[in-house]
Write a structure and sequence with these properties.
It is built from two helices and two strands. It has helices at residues 14-29, 35-41; strands spanning 2-3, 9-10. The protein is 51% helix and 9% strand. It is mostly helical. The chain has one domain. Bound molecules: zinc ion (ZN).
Length: 45
């Protein structure tokens, strides 16, 4: 599971979480995040 600073949460496998959070960051925060940045915030599933 990954939680964004704004409270947005994504659950699933790495391959589901990474694109979902990248899309969220781009659309909601106008931010581009790398796969490594997403995984650095990920909690154990
Ligand atoms: Zn967010």
């Amino acid at each position: 599971m990954v939680r964004c600073e704004c409270g947005f949460e994504v659950r699933g496998t790495e391959d589901e979480i990474v694109p979902a959070l990248q899309k969220h960051a781009g659309e909601s925060h106008n931010m581009k995040v790398t796969r490594e940045q997403v995984l650095a915030r990920a909690h154990a599933i």
